[in-house]
Automatic annotation (TrEMBL):
Claim: NADP is one of the keywords in the record: no
Gene3D superfamilies linked: 3.10.620.30
Protein name per its UniProtKB record: Transglutaminase-like domain-containing protein
Domain Transglutaminase-like as annotated: residue spans: 514-583
SMART domains: TGc (SM00460)
Length: 792
C-alpha cells in the first residue's frame, strides 16, 4: 500500500581497479573522456597555464613571420639599380617567402639543428632552379645553361657581381648570390621568431642582408629614401609586434589591450622613420658621393692587354686596298651623325695617345650618361664582316646593346669584346646623342684633371700657337674653332712621317714648310694637345667616317678607306663633342723624304713599331665559353641534386593525393563499410599525431591509447569506438544516422587537433606518410606470425 512518502534509495558505489593496464582503468578513462565530450555546455576544462601561454606565443608568431618575410623582401630594393630589369625580383621574393615558410615549419615542429639545416638546404634547391634560373628554363624544364649558370653563381657569383657593368642582366650567375643571401636571412630570421623571445634578434639577419646589398650596389646606388624607408618601416614593425608578444600572460588577460598597444605603436614607428629620413636629407653623416666600390679593387673581367695604339694603325688602313669592314643602319633621329667611334684615347705621355679603359663585362643595359642635357636617341644595327677586334663600332653614348659578351668602359663609353673573331657578329645599339643648338655658348665640363693634363716638356712652338689662337677670341667655342681652322690649313699627305709625339707635333708648327704636313693622326693629336694646354678636357677618338656615296637603302657600307681620327672635347651639357681638324678636301702637300737611318736626336717615339701598349683583349678563363661543352662532373652533380629535390617535392604531393583518394573510397559502400571507413580515417589521424595504432587492438583499446596521448582531445574517439564495434559485430545493418554520426565524430577529431596544434601541424599531417604504411606493416607481421604457427 502506498503511503505517499518517498523512501530514499542508497546505492553502494563499487570500486573498480585503477591500474593503467586493468580493464577497469581503461573503462574509467574511456567513460570520463566520453563524459567530457558529452558535456551539456560544450565547454572543456581550463588548460594549464603553460599550455595557454604556448598557444598565445604560437598564434603571435604567425603575423611576426609575415613581417619577417616583408622585412627580408625590402632588402631586395637596392638591387633595383644593380639589374637592368625586374626579372630578378621573382627569385628574390620567392627566396624571402620560401625561406620564412621553411624555417617556420621547421621551428613549429621543433626540429633539431641538423634536420633544420637539411630541410632549408633542400628547399632552396627548387628555388635556385626554378626561380633563380627561370630565364634559362625550356618549357619549364632545366637545361644545361641552367646548370652552368647556377654552378657559376655558386662558385664565383659574388666575384662576377663585383666585376660587371651596371645595370646588369638578371642572369642566373648574378642573381644566385642575392637569392642565397635573401634565403639565409629569411630562414634565420624566421627561426629566431619561432624559437626565441628576443626582441631584436629577428631584425639582425635582414639588416646584414641590406648592408650586403648596399655593398654590391655601391657603384650604382638607388635613391636612399625608398629602400631605407621601406626597410625601417618593416623592421620596426616587426620589433613592435615582438614587443607586444613579449608578455603572453598579459595578452591572455586582455587581448584587446594588446592590440591597442600595437595600434598605438604604429604611429610611433612612422614618426621614427620620418625623423630618420629627414635626418638623412638635412643632416647626413656622409654625402655618399665617394662611396667605396669593391669593383675598384678587383680584377676586371675583360683585360685589355698589349697591342699597338689604334691611332698608330690609321696610316696602314688608309694605304691598304679598300675592303669592306661592316655595315651600319640607323633608325630614330640620326641627323648630324656622320661617323662611328671604335676607340677613345685619353692618356698622353708625350709620345703616345693610349686608352686607360677598364672594361667590365656588360649586359644588354648600359649606364645612362649623365653628361648630356636633353639628348636624343639613335639606334644602330651593325653587321661586321672584316673588322678586327677588340673594339666595336658605336656612336654617341651607348645605353643598350644586344652584342654578346661585350665589355663596357664607363669612363670612355667604349665597347669591346674578347671574341676571337668579329666576322659575322651582328648587334643592335641604342645611343644617346647630344643636341647641337647653343654650342657656340658651351663651356668646358668639370674635370678632375685627367682629361686636361699634359706631360711635362710641351714644346715652345705648341705653347705659342695655343696662346695665340686662344688669345684672339673670348668664347670657349671660338677658341676651339680657331684651333680647328688653323690645323685645317695644313697640307694633307699620307706620305708624312708617322707618329704623334711632342717632336712630331712640333714640326707641324716649325719653321720648315716641308715639315708642316700630315694626316689625321697628327692633326687630331695636335688639336688635343693645343686644347689641353688651354684647360679643355680633350681626347682623341679613332673610328670611321660614314661616306654618303656608300649609302644604299638606308645602310652605310664602311670600308678601310673610311678610317679616321678626330679630337673630342667634353662640353657641359653636350658630352663629348667631335671636332675635325683634318682638311675635309684633303688638299695635298709635299712631304719630306724620309731618311734611311734616323738622324741624330730623332727619338724612337716617331717610329710606329715602337708605339706603346694600348689594348688587346685577354680572355679570362673563369668566364663561360661561347661554344657548347660536354657536361662536367659539377653539371652531373647538379642534375642528381635536382632529381633528388624533385623527388623530395613530389613525394609529399603523392602522399596527399593518396590520402584524398582513400578518404573518398572510404565514404562509399554499405553503411557498415562507411562507418568502418570513418574509423579508419580516425586511426589515420591518430597515427599522424603520434598514437601507435595496431590492427590487433580493439576499438576500446585504441580509444584508451588515444586518451593517454591526446588527453581530452580524444573524446570523439571514445564515442566512435562503440559505433564501429556495433557496425562490425552487430548482425543488423546500421542506419544512416549512425553513418552521419561516425563521420561527424571524425570531423570533430580533426577540428580538435587542428585547433590545439595549429595550422602548421595540420598542414604537415597531410604529407605524413605513416598512415599509408602502418596497415601494410601490420598485415606483413600477421602473415609472418601465421606462417610460423603453421610451420610449427
Amino acid at each position: 500500500m502506498t503511503t505517499g512518502r518517498t523512501t530514499p534509495v542508497h546505492i553502494r558505489e563499487e570500486t573498480v581497479p585503477r591500474g593503467e593496464t586493468s580493464d577497469g582503468g581503461r573503462i574509467t578513462q574511456t567513460v570520463e573522456a566520453a563524459k567530457t565530450a558529452l558535456a551539456d555546455d560544450g565547454r572543456r576544462p581550463a588548460r594549464p597555464r603553460s599550455s595557454a601561454v604556448e598557444r598565445v606565443l604560437r598564434a603571435a608568431a604567425y603575423p611576426q613571420l609575415v613581417l619577417a618575410a616583408v622585412a627580408v623582401a625590402t632588402t631586395c630594393l637596392p638591387y633595383l639599380s644593380f639589374f637592368g630589369g625586374l626579372d630578378f625580383l621573382i627569385a628574390l621574393l620567392v627566396a624571402a617567402g620560401g625561406g620564412v615558410l621553411t624555417a617556420g615549419i621547421a621551428g613549429a615542429r621543433r626540429l633539431r639543428t641538423l634536420p633544420t639545416l637539411s630541410a632549408c638546404l633542400l628547399a632552396f634547391l627548387p628555388v635556385a632552379v626554378f626561380a633563380v634560373g627561370h630565364t634559362t628554363l625550356r618549357h619549364g624544364v632545366p637545361t644545361g645553361e641552367t646548370l652552368r649558370g647556377l654552378g657559376t653563381g655558386l662558385t664565383s657569383g659574388w666575384a662576377r657581381m663585383l666585376s660587371v657593368t651596371l645595370p646588369a642582366d638578371a642572369t642566373p650567375e648574378l642573381v644566385f648570390t642575392p637569392a642565397l643571401l635573401t634565403w639565409i636571412a629569411a630562414t634565420v630570421s624566421a627561426t629566431l621568431v619561432v624559437r626565441t623571445r628576443s626582441l631584436l634578434a629577428p631584425a639582425v639577419p635582414p639588416l646584414l642582408t641590406f648592408a650586403a646589398a648596399l655593398l654590391f650596389t655601391a657603384g650604382h646606388p638607388l635613391g636612399g629614401f625608398l629602400p631605407v624607408g621601406a626597410f625601417l618601416v618593416s623592421v620596426l614593425t616587426l620589433v613592435l609586434a615582438r614587443a607586444g608578444a613579449a608578455d603572453p600572460a598579459a595578452r591572455i588577460a586582455d587581448t584587446r589591450a594588446a592590440w591597442g598597444r600595437f595600434a598605438f605603436g604604429v604611429p610611433v614607428v612612422l614618426v621614427a622613420v620620418a625623423a630618420g629620413l629627414a635626418g638623412m636629407h638635412y643632416l647626413p653623416l656622409a654625402t655618399g658621393q665617394h662611396r667605396f666600390d669593391p669593383r675598384t679593387v678587383l680584377p676586371v673581367r675583360l683585360d685589355i692587354g698589349d697591342t699597338i695604339s689604334p691611332l698608330a694603325t690609321l696610316k696602314s688602313q688608309l694605304r691598304a686596298p679598300a675592303h669592306d669592314l661592316f655595315t651600319v643602319r640607323f633608325t630614330g633621329d640620326p641627323a648630324g651623325v656622320d661617323r662611328v667611334r671604335t676607340a677613345a684615347l685619353d692618356d698622353y705621355d708625350g709620345a703616345l695617345w693610349a686608352a686607360h679603359d677598364r672594361f667590365l663585362l656588360a649586359g644588354k643595359s648600359l649606364p645612362a650618361s649623365d653628361t648630356l642635357t636633353a639628348p636624343r636617341q639613335v639606334s644602330l644595327s651593325v653587321r661586321i664582316s672584316g673588322l678586327t677586334g677588340p673594339y666595336l663600332p658605336e656612336a654617341g653614348e651607348p645605353v643598350r646593346t644586344t652584342a654578346p659578351r661585350v665589355g663596357y668602359s664607363a669612363e670612355s663609353g667604349v665597347l669591346a669584346t674578347d671574341a676571337p673573331t668579329l666576322s659575322g657578329l651582328a648587334y643592335d645599339l641604342v645611343a644617346q646623342v647630344g643636341r647641337k643648338d647653343g654650342l657656340e655658348h658651351a663651356v668646358p665640363a668639370a674635370d678632375d684633371g685627367h682629361d686636361s693634363a699634359l706631360p711635362p716638356g710641351l714644346p715652345p712652338e705648341l705653347q705659342e700657337q695655343a696662346a695665340a689662337l686662344a688669345g684672339a677670341v673670348d668664347e670657349p667655342w671660338a677658341k676651339l674653332m680657331a684651333m680647328q681652322e688653323r690645323l685645317r690649313r695644313l697640307p694633307y699627305s699620307l706620305d708624312a712621317r708617322p707618329g704623334h709625339s711632342y717632336d712630331a707635333l712640333r714640326r707641324l708648327f716649325g719653321a720648315n714648310p716641308a715639315d708642316q704636313v700630315g694626316y689625321a693622326e697628327q692633326f687630331a693629336a695636335a688639336f688635343a694637345v693645343l686644347a689641353r694646354s688651354q684647360g679643355f678636357p680633350t681626347r682623341v677618338a679613332v673610328g670611321y667616317l660614314l661616306n654618303p656615296a656608300r649609302l644604299k637603302d638606308g645602310t652605310y657600307t664602311v670600308t678601310s678607306a673610311d678610317a679616321h681620327a678626330w679630337p673630342e672635347v667634353h662640353l657641359a651639357g653636350y658630352g663629348w663633342v667631335a671636332f675635325d681638324p683634318t682638311d675635309p678636301l684633303r688638299h695635298g702637300g709635299v712631304a719630306p723624304k724620309q731618311p734611311d737611318t734616323p738622324p741624330a736626336g730623332n727619338t724612337a717615339n716617331d717610329r710606329p713599331d715602337d708605339h706603346g701598349k694600348a689594348s688587346q683583349v685577354g680572355v679570362d678563363p673563369g668566364l663561360p665559353k661561347l661554344a657548347g661543352e660536354r657536361l662536367s662532373v659539377l653539371d652531373w652533380a647538379l642534375i642528381v641534386l635536382i632529381g633528388l629535390g624533385a623527388l623530395v617535392l613530389l613525394t609529399p604531393v603523392a602522399v596527399a593525393v593518396e590520402k584524398v583518394r582513400r578518404r573518398r573510397a572510404r565514404r562509399t559502400g554499405s553503411r557498415a563499410a562507411r562507418i568502418t571507413g570513418a574509423w579508419q580515417e580516425t586511426t589515420d589521424r591518430l597515427t599522424e599525431n603520434g598514437v601507435r595504432v595496431s590492427a590487433s587492438s580493439t576499438a576500446v583499446e585504441v580509444a584508451h591509447q588515444a586518451g593517454e596521448v591526446l588527453g581530452e582531445r580524444a573524446g570523439a574517439v571514445a564515442l566512435l569506438a562503440p559505433l564501429v564495434t556495433a557496425a562490425v559485430y552487430s548482425p543488423a545493418e546500421p542506419d544512416d544516422t549512425a553513418v552521419a554520426e561516425a563521420w561527424g565524430l571524425d570531423a570533430r577529431l580533426r577540428r580538435e587537433l587542428r585547433g590545439t596544434r595549429g595550422p602548421f601541424v595540420a598542414l604537415r599531417a597531410w604529407f605524413d606518410p605513416r598512415p599509408l604504411f602502418d596497415r601494410r606493416r601490420d598485415a606483413r607481421r600477421r602473415r609472418r606470425a601465421l606462417e610460423k604457427l603453421t610451420r610449427g
